[in-house]
Write the structure tokens for this entry.
Amino acid sequence: MESEKQILFAGFGGQGVLSMSKFLAYAAMGAGKNVTWVPSYGAEMRGGTANCLVTIANEEISSPLTENPLMAIIMNKPSLERFENKVQPDGTLFVNSSMVDRKCRRDDLTVLEVPVNQLAEELDNLRGANMILLGAYLEKTRVVEVEDALEHFEQIFSGKRKEIIQKNRQAFLAGVEYARNNW
Amino acid sequence: MARGRVIFLAERCKACGLCVEFCPKNILVFDDHTINVLGFHPVMLLQPDECTGCGICGLMCPDLVIQVERE
Amino acid sequence: MKKVLMKGNEALAEGALIAGCRGFFGYPITPSSEIAEYMARKLPKIGGAFIQAESELAAINMIYGGSSTGTRVMTASSGPGISLKQEGISFISEAELPCLIVNVSRGGPGLGGIQPSQADYFQATRGGGHGDYRIIVLAPSSSQEMMDLAILAFELADKYRTPVMIMAEGTLGNLMEPVIVREAVTEFLDKPWATTGCVGRKPNVINTLHLSQEELEGRNRHLTEKYKMISKNEKRAESFLLDDAEIVVVAFGLLARIIKKSVMEARKKGVKAGLIRPVTLWPFPDEHIQAVSRTARTILSVEINMGQMVEDIRLAAGGKIPVEFYGRIGFTPNPEEITRQLLFIAEREGLL
Amino acid sequence: MKTVFKKPESLTDAKFHYCPGCSHGIIHRLIAECLDELKIREQTIGICPVGCSVLAYEYFNCDMLEAAHGRAPAIATAMKRLLPDRYLFTYQGDGDLASIGMGEIVHASLRGEKITVIFVNNTLYGMTGGQMAPTTLLGQVTTTSPYGRSKDWEGYPAKMAELLAQNEGSAYICRTAVNDPPNVVKTKRAIKKALQTQARGLGFSMVEVLSTCPTNWGLSPVEAMKWVEENMIPYYPLGEFKVKEE
């Protein structure tokens, strides 16, 4: 089994797609893995959805791009429309069910849903929605160990206010807990 | 007696005539008997005794032809 | 060994600083502006000069001036901006002033788009401006190489007294990955030709005007000798799985790295594919092409343009082997797309 | 006898290539005299333009560069920023500075670059054979304004000293002429003041010098000097337009 994993992050601007995917890239590097992070660029830049592709591997990464990522983290409905057919057969979708009001149309994918916005509201931290989904994702996939990610939290958010780091940490852990309890 | 002395680097002179025009004593002329390497009749001092060494000829010369000395 | 997660553009800028670059003069243009932004933050803190010039023309002439002081200087731009800089690059080449010019390329002609591109290959490898000259052109394929080739670029620039260009697709500028940050360069060549004020020596003149035919021809012969020397010494390319390769892909930049995966995938399906990745676009690594011309069945040039490097490959192959072309515009092909192309060729050639 | 007038040390022995009576030679000499008197020859780097004075690097006995057309201020900018204790001067004609190099000169002034610009205005492109320049006077006939420059077609001549004096970054802006001995003396004084402005780090300095082009004007050198007085000075008034004291 190859270790290389390619994960697509998609949502609309402002949902923190770039920052959650960057977090994963930092965490992966912190855990000693090879990683590439490519933001959507060019034609895909205009049109409301932001997306980003992270590749994580133990070996040297040849291609940081792919047509068919193994996993997709879907933050809103237009992203589902656009990317559900791109994910590899037997791949996994992580869906923010608060923002997507329909089910995935493919039956060969594992679909894991998190009502991210509701959870974020419960935490009174709407901006932390991205970290909730990321926490759930990492707990489920262990692409990077949750403990490793937590260990690099301060470093990844270095320069940010203490309070902000704390809120992100709380959101991340809420996602981890959701995955433990529901998946 | 002259109070000034003018030395010409005649091979640099292009006979533009600005020194001739602005000399307050009107004592500079073109040397019709000489043709320099540039093909011009270079300037010369007609009445050396009259030169006051005011330096105006050097000031107006665009080609550094003239060196002026004064007592 | 310190690894830092860096965007390609940042890695390049940091590499330039590591190489001792102390002057950046540029004009904003997508997708290169991050390099200027990085330098604007860093240079003032280490006693360097950053100026956002009023135009690309001013920027390249600031490079002319900056380099004349003996300082390592650079600029960065993209397609339309690089076109505007060409007059200056011609002057800088003739004045033999070392500098780094970065083209984070976008698609043209005209304003084109801001998508990744390799369509400035001709412009870069043929000199770009007026007169007989060449510039060294380096094509990185990772954030690490963005840094390492920036350091190399300054070294080659000083060694040969020539502008060096780094050409990278916009995607590479934005791609983020861990980079091993190199040690600061501490050894530099003397530059007795620099115009720094003639204290205790005869005045230096930096000039590109040669009105006498003999002098002009002499200058051109001198430059040509220098270009021959560079061609002899500085060709660089990466070879990947060439030993038994029947189909050899030639590609540069980030695209080449993506195609490595295509080559591996094609091999899994029984196609003996290989890859040549020119690292120097000028001088072009023609010996690499010549070597596979004797052993392979066909060469495929893949480029993000409508077919430019393919001409250099054909020149190098000298008709000994078919050279075909596959190109896209405004888009970096995914590995799967090139794998399909390799399978298509293999099937057509009966290599499966 | 003491020498009251001779070639300054800051000029080489090379003979000027200029036409007879062309005032570039006078202006070169004035700059060189200032460098001598301020004792800054070895600290000075000059940048010459494209135009008749393209070969000026052969005449100044200091480090010199030859610039692309119009770009001398950009080159000087970078050099001064990297060598802040050196003196940078550019020597530019009117086509170079006020036409193709309009962007560079305006922005060097806006940034308050601590450089000195010697701007030689002779109302036309001399080297290329007398074409219209941004400084060509209304009614003036050139090879590309054969019916005389018209305000309705070619528009108005550029008053660069006035234009640049408006910029906050400009510290010393002056217009002089070299059409007679008193004006030559004033020009030298202005150039020296401009270099001193640079020494004091006050900002951008420029001396616009009204100059002659006897060849392309079709006048004798002496007539050309009179033409400056009668035609140029009325449109391009002499004097200091900006003097920043700190």
